[in-house]
Amino acid sequence: MSWTKDTSEQDAVAYKTSFTKSIVGKYTDSSEQCSVVTSMRLNKNTFLLDAGCGAGRYLANTVTDQPFVGLDLSLEMLRMAREELKRGLFVVGELEHLPFKDNVFDEIICVRVLQHIKNQEQAIRELSRVCKMNGDVIVLCLNSWTFHCLYKNIRMSKLSKVINYPFKLLLGDKAMFSKWSFDYDNYCSLPEVCRLFDKAGLVVIEKKGGTIGSPWIFNYFYLGRFSEKFVPAILRYYFKICTFVENRLASVFPFNYIMDKIIVKGVKL
Ligand SMILES: C[S@@+](CC[C@H](N)C(=O)[O-])C[C@H]1O[C@@H](n2cnc3c(N)ncnc32)[C@H](O)[C@@H]1O
Fold first, then answer.
1. Structure pTM?
2. How far is C-alpha 168 from the geometric centre of its chain's CA atoms?
């Protein structure tokens, strides 16, 4: 799969509901929302851009009266976002070629999009271009310095067929080393994202890690389904502890370099 202009309604709905219908999904959502929202500067006049807004998960959680724009490649995602928000401007477009003038937005967020973009340098340069002087650009992306990334790379490689063979015999087509669902999925490390910010003229003022509870393990190794069914209270408690730890260690070295997500905030000076 890849995100395109023609992403199906089924994929869009599956993505949206993945954050609401399970304990693992709810933890992922609240952890990601918290990391980004606590770094945002919002007042009633802030002009906000959510670049790669998807179904509007962040806009629904952050905007009150302020003007905002949601941009995304996928029409179906934007349709769902507009349905959810019921106001605001939604634009079809690519991060690498933003259809806006220079110096327009006060605050820009870009969550879980960078990994799907081939020219990441150009995408960050575009975010910087459309950001006002003194405005913020906040990017959340998946960290390449993790076992999650190693696991993804194995599933994206030719090795996956060999490793998956015994699991496939036991578990069928959805075995845990089957082919990765995205054709292109390029995670970044914290230093890499900081370098991209630097090249785009953004001064990095915050580097955080996020989602320490590694929800991917629960999603891909049947652990989530099992524990949600048989020990949901333990699972909730585990994520509660993760949230507690995350709130204290997210910005502390070396934890910010090795958590499942990285969040970088830069200011255009
Ligand atoms: C994983 S979703 C994240 C959506 C949303 N930011 C969230 O966190 O819920 C990735 C989104 O990025 C969009 N996307 C992928 N490549 C893009 C590009 N080059 N330009 C703009 N949007 C893109 C996809 O259509 C999809 O909605």
1. 0.95
2. 29
CATH architecture assignment, domain 9-146+187-268: 3-Layer(aba) Sandwich (3.40)
Task: Please tell me if the CB atom of residue 190 comes closer than 6 angstroms to any atom of ligand 1.
Answer: no
User: Which of 121-135, 163-177, 195-209, 239-253 has the lowest average pLDDT?
Assistant: 163-177
Q: Is 127 in the pocket of ligand 1 (CB under 6 A)?
A: no
Atom of ligand 1 nearest to the CA of 12: 27
Q: Could you identify the residue written with the tokens 């292109």?
A: 184
What token pair was written down for 261? Answer: 């997500």
Q: What are the residue ranges spanned by the domains of the chain?
A: 9-146+187-268
Q: What is the spatial distance between Cα 29 and Cα 36, in angstroms, rounded to a whole number?
A: 11
* pLDDT at residue 1 is higher than 80: no
113 close to ligand 1 (CB < 6 Angstrom):
yes
Whether the CB of 112 sits within 6 Å of ligand 1: yes
In 116-260, which ranges are continuous DSSP H helix?
A: 120-130, 147-156, 159-171, 190-199, 215-220, 223-230, 232-249, 255-258
What is the widest separation between alpha-carbon atoms in the chain?
58
pLDDT on residue 171: 80
Q: Which helix (H) or strand (E) is 50 found in, with range?
A: strand 48-51
DSSP single-letter state for residue 186: -
- Whether ligand 1 lies within 6 angstroms of the CB of 49 is answered as no
Nearest residue (CA) to ligand 1, atom 18: 94
Q: Give the residues across from 97 on adjacent strands.
A: 94
Q: Output the residue whose Cα is nearest ligand 1's atom 8.
A: 111
